[in-house]
């Protein structure tokens, strides 16, 4: 497992990088109104800065994992952050909306490979009983970004221009680059050339395919509403400055939820995910009802409740896939992890795209209920998986024969 001098220091380094990447992933959520005004695009078109970013991560995670399998992990991290900085600078100085989208996609490619590699490192550097918690620590960088990076970037954009928000993200990326050069060990295990047959082994394994679908639907459903959280909050009558403060509190709720989710997913990730998705479903329905009622206090409560449950499932979803890969395709764990990162972002693309269609054709108010339906699909898939596991426990040879 390579150098294990200080697992916590390695996790801290990963969290710093995740903070930089998490800041840019969701920054455009707070900047949508500014992008609409600057480029004279519709709200649904501005939402492409979220959905196309997610698509870039979806492509980047498995593709770059295959291409960089023989790279030194530390050198790979440095390359990832250089690509990340370049993408954000291109977005910052984009003369057209199309160039902005290209910059977002470049940053997304860096995001995809970072998350797939760092998740495996986080799980490997600690003892088995701490794996979900280790993944949660790494993902804390994302939650801290939601708490501080996204609201701060949004505030900078509101006070100056949206371009300065992306410059701010590039500077954070530079800090991440420096952190990687000092804190990521030089002799981490190198997976080696990825066997392309691994794709066949993974996609012909029913439990793994089901886990990817659970990730896509369970995580992605939130984004039908979350992508448009700023205009939803504005609809309740909150000012632009108030929205920034609410986003900060929202991020704190996300951090709390992520920590709780990591703790409870350590032992039985699938059982924990079932409960988490149930709570998320309730939160989305509650937000839908409050938007229809137009009640400001209830609307604020619903938005914060959504923050608590929105990303609680992330550590469990990633650990579940790693555990399945160890059981069924131990030679393809890194690739399976990358494909699950892709599934996360297929979910974001699905959720934000459906949210855009709902916003354009039905109305902003209906985005939460469509998100709830997507999450419900994940719950139904878990029910199906647990039934299959019950059958397998009776006849353990049934799955092995597959």
Structure in words:
- The C terminus is likely disordered.
- The longest helix has 33 residues.
- The two termini are 30 Å apart.
- With 402 residues, this protein is mainly alpha-helical.
- Helix 9 runs parallel beside helix 16.
- It contains 18 helices and no strands.
According to DSSP, the number of beta strands is: 0
What is the first-to-last residue Cα distance?
30 Å
Radius of gyration: 20 Å
N to C succession of SSEs: HHHHHHHHHHHHHHHHHH
Q: Uncertain spans, ≥5 residues at pLDDT below 50?
A: 398-402
Which word captures the global form? globular
Mean pLDDT: 86
What proportion strand?
A: under 5%
Helix content: over 70%
Number of helices: 18
- Structural class given helices, strands, pairing? mainly alpha
Can you summarize the main beta sheet?
Answer: none
Keywords:
globular; 402 residues; 18 helices; mainly alpha
Give a topology summary.
Layout: H1 7-39, H2 43-46, H3 48-67, H4 73-92, H5 97-124, H6 131-159, H7 162-183, H8 197-203, H9 206-220, H10 223-226, H11 229-235, H12 240-265, H13 269-293, H14 296-310, H15 314-328, H16 333-361, H17 367-394, H18 397-400
Helix pairs in contact: 1-3, 1-5, 1-6, 1-7, 3-5, 3-16, 4-5, 4-7, 5-6, 5-16, 6-7, 6-12, 6-15, 9-15, 9-16, 9-17, 12-14, 12-15, 13-14, 13-15, 13-17, 15-16, 16-17
